[in-house]
Amino acid sequence: MIRVLAKKINSGATFAMQNSQYSDKILLSDTVPALSSHLGKASVSNLGDFLCQHVTGHFETLDLLTGTSTTHTVDDEINHLRGQLMDGAGNRKLFNDYIPLDLILSPGRMRSVNAVNTYAVVNDGAAQAAIANAAPSLFYPFEFEYLFSRNTDILFDVKNDSRNAINYEIVFHGIRVLGR
């Protein structure tokens, strides 16, 4: 069987294709202020077009717990972020609506260093909350295929309905196409 494949493979064409593209990743990391939206941006450089194939990422699930005397930042295990992905070339929307980040990002929710002890119960007079444990870290990349042109931006408009600023990171996995 290997002989059959060896006769079918054109090594010159394979090497030419291999030299014109390589695996690449583009990171978009941002903080969305409390009770507002923010437009995150990652640049596709002039090295070549970027064919996105998968998306992964993580986000925090923080909110404020207000008691009679103090306010605590707690991990409430609720996804407060939803986002709209756009191509910077003409601000073309790539989703029909704002999508909750837990539907597209894997491993998803992360434990934040900004929250109080995740194994404690916060009890402050009138307010009480059990604080969430860390989420399981499953890794299932979200399949998303889209060709971003060189010298454009990948835009991610994210809305936050929490009373706390929340961080997220999204990574676009794909192929950098060097020639046209």
List the helices and strands and how they pair.
Blueprint: H1 2-8, H2 11-19, E1 21-32, E2 36-44, E3 49-59, E4 62-66, E5 71-75, E6 81-87, E7 92-93, E8 99-100, H3 101-104, E9 107-109, E10 121-124, E11 127-130, E12 142-148, E13 152-160, E14 166-177
Parallel strand pairs: 3-9
Antiparallel strand pairs: 1-14, 2-13, 3-12, 3-14, 4-5, 6-7, 6-8, 6-13, 10-11
What does it look like?
By secondary structure, the chain is mostly beta strands. The chain has one domain. The protein has helices at 2-8, 11-19, 101-104; strands at residues 21-32, 36-44, 49-59, 62-66, 71-75, 81-87, 92-93, 99-100, 107-109, 121-124, 127-130, 142-148, 152-160, 166-177. The strands form four sheets. Strands 1, 3, 9, 12 and 14 form a five-stranded mixed sheet that branches. Strands 2, 6, 7, 8 and 13 form a five-stranded antiparallel sheet that branches. Strands 4-5 form a two-stranded antiparallel sheet. The longest helix is centred in the N-terminal third of the chain and has 9 residues, at 11-19.
List keywords for this structure.
180 residues, mainly beta, five-stranded mixed β-sheet
Quick synopsis:
It is built from three helices and 14 strands. It has 180 residues and is mainly beta.
Categorize the overall geometry.
Answer: elongated
Structural class label? mainly beta
* Strand content range: over 45%
Mean pLDDT: 84
Computed over alpha carbons, the radius of gyration is 21 Å
The number of distinct β-strands equals 14
Please give the domain count: 1
